[in-house]
Amino acid sequence: xxASAPYRSLRQGEMLNWYRIERILGRGxxxxxxxxxxxxxxHLVAIKEYRVLIPTSTDDTESATxxxxxxxxxxxxxxxxxxxxxxRFKHPNIVRVMSVFELNxxxxxxxxxxxxxxxxVHLKNPENADEGALKQLFVPISKGLSEVHKHGFIHRDxxxxxxxxxxxxxPVLLDFGSARSASVTGPNTLTAxxxxxxxxxxxxSEGDDxxxxxxxxxxxxxxxxxxxxxxxxxxxxxxxGTALLNGGKDPLLPARMLGRDRYSDAFLKNIDWALQxxxxxxxxxxxxxxxxxxxxPTPDTVTRRVDNTAAFTTRPTEKIGPSDPLSGLSxxxxxxxxxxxxxxxxxxxxxxxxxxxxxxxxxVAIAVSVLLVASLIPGFxxxxxxxxxxxxxxxxxxxxxxxxxxxxxxxKKLAEEQQAAAEEERRLAEAEKQAGELAAEEARKAVAEKAxxxxxxxxxxxxxxxxxxxxxxxxxxxxxxxxxGLLDEAEASLDEATTLDRNxxxxxxxxxxxxxxxxxxxTPVSDNDFDKVIERFDKLRRALxxxxxxxxxxxxxxxxxxxxxxxxxxxxxxxxxxxxHIRVRNADKSISAVLRIENMVRDNGDRAxxxxxxxxxxxxxxxxxGKWSAIQW
Length: 633
Description:
ATP-binding; protein serine/threonine kinase activity
């Protein structure tokens, strides 16, 4: 069929009605987005041009073939109708549609130009990618999208490039050109209308709008959050479908696996919920999903509250147990034994008793007074004088005897009291000795306790050293296994290291390498990978033919082949090299070939053919963690 007239993008300075084109902001499946100036109001706007294009160069394009022209016209009319509907949406987090018009056999939507940075650039700051910041960013986006869903529309092209973060930190959802738009191209160009990784499988079905709904946009929002928490593009839903429908495993690794070191389990679980492959397994409304996504995770443990006044209920006499058993130790820190206190009291009593007057001297004084009184009474000088004298003598002798007995009794009592005092002194000395021994025993116990604690600390330090050595061995082993591509063995070593110290920064780095390697191992060698490696093989061939030693060493890993070819290049002016038998191995993600020396040319033009032992060698390159290794030979 005859094609329509060639089409080109608008250039700077061209006019669309009263809009002057400034530059191209971007291209998409439906056409081109321009930055333009509204010359009437003198402010910048964004204009989206609807056109299904087949690119032929960087700037120029051609229209679809004439047999699709009628369907293209229908797409234009639907584009205009939906743009008119979008004008009704008034929300601060949805780009505002200002106008729509037809010109140049197509349609244009005029939208408010928003300044800021797209989500990918915004997430390069680690603070913007933590859980709290992501929730705060996606709440207004979900509210704006809910407004669209409420009017019966879906966005259908949510991806990081269509989420702009303004300079004040608020997000805005861009590019509603795909909203409910029907495909106007054949199945071979259908992928131009979806964003791989962010579009669910129902968007790949041409004209199957009935299968699409809010759950379609929820899948895309979940994919954007997946990118935010993992830093990786989600696997295309078409590839997921191919694997799942053929009985294989889902190639999309769960967010709960990749983000568990940084995000809560509930947050990651709800991201995975939005990315369920089957429509029925996903949240059906934004409100259901956002309620679950924003819910606070239940803490694993509950902190027990302690009354601060409990610290002040200890009695002063109770032993609190100092941290250092020898700190402040003295004799006065211990109460005196009762025996010592009793001995001190008795000794004080004895000393006071020496100062008391003897009661017997009082009796003697009374007797003398009675005799003096009797000598003055009349009648004592009568006839009975002889008898009275005899009685007086007997009484005097009795008094002397009584005086002697009293003196002996007093001396005996004094001796007994002195003996008791001496006994008390002995007991006091014994009690003081026992108190000293008790204090010494307490000191010995304190020293022993200090030694015991020092021994426990030494044991703890020894265990820590052993744990650190074991951790270093596990991390070294995991790194070596990752270099060798043995992912299962590397994961086992990483799990062992996690049990030793899950917060070690080296462990986090190796765990991230393992995840990248796991993704890489599940991704087959692509045509782009093949072309890239073959180009390096050919570059090596040209370097060997042209005696370019620097390029050869830059492309290859050090080996004895480097020395061999240096020697050949010093002897011959030219080597004829062929690259043959190219093979691709998805098992170990490697590409190999045979490098053959056909001829070796000397300065004088003579040709030499190498021996079979040196004529051919295998060259190979292997993809490790997403990067192709230097050429091995």
